[in-house]
Design goal:
- With 193 residues, this protein is α/β, with parallel strands linked by helices.
- Helix content is 21%, strand content 26%.
- It has helices at 3-8, 19-36, 43-53, 118-122, and strands at 61-63, 67-69, 75-77, 81-83, 87-90, 95-97, 102-103, 108-110, 112-113, 127-128, 131-133, 138-139, 144-145, 150-151, 156-157, 162-163, 171-174, 179-183.
- The strands form four sheets. It has a seven-stranded mixed beta sheet, with no helix packed on it. A five-stranded parallel beta sheet has the order 2-5-8-13-16. It has a four-stranded parallel beta sheet with strand order 3-6-11-14, with no helix packed on it.
- Helix 2 (19-36) packs antiparallel against helix 3 (43-53).
Length: 193
């Protein structure tokens, strides 16, 4: 079994020793560098680079540089996506964002994790578990999302939170570790102009 096959099924794998994984990471780093050197007026070029780098993205995606990924080909982004400066996605496993997702500056989504066992860790072993972010989700600045987490539709993650476990739909969740603070009201609100 190859290291890529091990990673795909959630087993420990060694990304450092696998030539194909190393080549894929190098390709992604080069594309990220090219993307990060674009000017803000080069929207078409940014979209072209994202379409080469990512598994899926729509026309209305905005990711403010700098932006970094491990591979890129595990990342799927839905419609009307915005990420502020400093987004990092470590995509050893699939990382999926729904429609209408907003991400504050300096956030990290890490599908990659490392074993607690010292011998395994020192041998360069790691694991990867998918991350899923639902529709209409707002992620505050400085949020860290760990391997295997799902964030439900219509939820908000407060700034500085570390999301270590699944967050249900329709809630405000905050803290380290991130916990549900309250449900978000779904009834219509009267707007004052």
């Amino acid at each position: 079994m190859t290291e890529l096959e091990k990673a795909a099924i959630g087993l420990l794998y060694n990304a450092e020793r696998d030539q194909k994984l190393a080549a894929a990471r190098a390709r992604a780093k080069d594309l990220c560098l090219e993307y990060n050197l674009t000017r803000s007026t080069q929207a078409e070029e940014r979209l072209r680079l994202l379409r080469v780098l990512l598994a899926q993205c729509e026309d209305d995606v905005t990711i403010e540089p700098p932006f970094y990924v491990d591979y890129g080909y595990h990342i799927r982004i839905g419609k009307t996506f915005y990420a502020n400066h400093g987004l990092v996605i470590l995509d050893g496993a699939p990382v999926t964002f729904g429609d209408n997702v907003r991400i504050g500056p300096n956030c990290c989504f890490s599908a990659a994790g490392h074993p607690l066992d010292l011998t395994q860790r020192n041998a360069g072993l790691e694991y990867a578990k998918p991350i899923t972010v639902g529709n209409n989700v707002w992620i505050g600045m400085g949020v860290q999302v760990l391997p295997g987490v799902t964030i439900g539709d219509n939820s908000v993650i407060g700034a500085g939170s570390v999301v270590t476990r699944d967050i249900p739909a329709g809630v405000l969740a905050v803290g380290v570790p991130c916990c549900v603070a309250r449900e978000i009201a779904t009834k219509p609100r009267r707007m004052i102009l």
